[in-house]
Amino acid sequence: MLKGKWNFSGFVVSDWGSIGEMIAHGYVKNGKEAAYAAIMAGSDMDMESNAYRNNLKQLVEEGKVPNSILDDAVRRILRKKFELGLFDNPYRFSDSKRQQKELNNTENTKAAREVAAKSIVLLKNENKVLPLSKETKTIAFIGPMVKFKRANHGFWAIDLKDVDSTYIVSQWEGIQKKVSKNTKLLYAKGCGINDSSKDGFKEAIDVANQADVVIVSVEEKYDMSGEAKSRSSITIPGVQEELIKELQKTGKPIVILINAGRPLVFNWTADNMPTIVYTWWLGSEAGNAIADVLFGDYNPSGKLPMSFPRTEGQIPIYYNHYNTGRPAKDDNDKTYVSSYIDLQNSPKFPFGYGLSYTSFTYSDLKLSKNKINRNEEIAVSLKITNSGKMAGEEVVQLYLRDRFASIVRPVKELKGFNKIALQAGETREVKFIINNETISFYNNNIELISEAGEFDVMVGSSSEDIRLNSEFELVD
């Protein structure tokens, strides 16, 4: 399929050690059988398991692996090496001078900061605490993440002894550089990331009581998420959420920053804290990017790339699920339908969700046609108005639903999105195109097909926030 029908010109490489791991999986009994199975299945390069290094020559000499298979794999790999210039300079990308140059490249730093800021998702801002004023008299910055630089890099990242003192901007440093010279910035760690000690709570509360606004940065530690890092409970670890509960009692305006590599379950915080920012792990410019968002130099526009569960019992949870034989009408429908009796079916925060410091109004959805054949297309247009008081960016999302087909189809599928920047009061028309490719799907024979039928068109700012909808029909 990949190399033939799709005419893929690159090469296929295994994951680290995965060819050898077929032995542990019980698929083959030794490295020779693993090498044979992998090369015949189309894996051109064996990463690290040494199955090819130790067995492939013998397999070819025995006639079990045709020369043509080996030649094709070698040809694909050599072609990419030529394209990368590695025959002219095998160490082209292994240059210590280049490393230092790129680490100190201001354009790279600028790009890292911009990408990090765009990745931040504003989950709640009910009391409009954000954006903060740079002239705020006293800010308390509390939590185990505040000065911990390494954590901003997340899991699969460089881990050098001196990494904290080089190019990573801590959250503390980012805020420190952002506020005015008259702002007093206070710090307390409060607690550790994954321990049970509350010894630091008193200091944190004392610090919070001195401040006009409190920023609390909690996290899942960088090595708690990633490859081989499953957790049976994905709540905020340790006593961090208990620290938030105690700080809430101060009555101070509190901004919660949640740093993690995946969705976490934090229901008490989600239900009781009015201002929550999901900051993920933002890399070397994390501190600056977070400060840009908190103080309004960048209006947050990030959207969640996955659904956040209410509890682990909802997992797997995703927006484009299939319907059931007895689908619930809504979260309140629980009588002999596919629903939890002790929980809402909907996610805590849905796929595509994310707030802004401004607001957007959707209107005037139009379809150029309501009936097409496979050679035609439909133009979907609508108007978006920045109905708030400051400039911002909105990600307009187009979803489709195929009402019936020869194989079951999802309840909705994201088929397009358009990020637009609007000044306060500005209105702009957004357009999407629906054609045969948009509505095609793979059947059980891995054939890309489209079928006559009826389709729902839904437009919104997340999978659970459909603002406008319409429908069209595909006819033979």
Quick rundown:
The chain has helices at residues 21-24, 31-41, 51-61, 67-83, 96-103, 106-119, 171-178, 201-209, 240-248, 267-272, 286-294, 436-439; strands at residues 121-125, 138-142, 184-188, 213-219, 254-259, 275-278, 360-367, 371-372, 378-386, 392-402, 413-422, 427-434, 441-442, 448-449, 453-462, 465-474.
Describe what this molecule looks like in 3D.
The protein has 476 residues and is of the alpha/beta class. Helix content is 23%, strand content 22%. It is built from 12 helices and 16 strands. A 6-stranded mixed sheet has the order 1-6-5-4-2-3, with helices on one face. Strands 8-16-15-10-11 form a 5-stranded mixed sheet, with no helix packed on it. Helix 9 links the parallel strand 4 and strand 5. Helix 6 crosses helix 11 and helix 7 packs across helix 11. The chain is globular. It starts with 20 loop residues before the first helix and ends with a strand.
Radius of gyration: 27 Å
The strand count comes to: 16
Strand order of the largest sheet: 1-6-5-4-2-3
Give me the secondary-structure category.
alpha/beta
Give the biggest beta sheet: 6 strands, mixed
Q: Which ranges are low-confidence, i.e. pLDDT below 50, for 5 or more consecutive residues?
A: none
Number of helices: 12
Query: Termini distance?
Result: 28 Å
Oligomerization? single chain
Tell me, what's the shape?
A: globular
Q: Share of helix among residues? A: 10-25%
Could you tell me the strand content as a percent range? 15-25%
Tell me the series of helices and strands, N- to C-terminal: HHHHHHEEHEHEHEHEHEEEEEEHEEEE
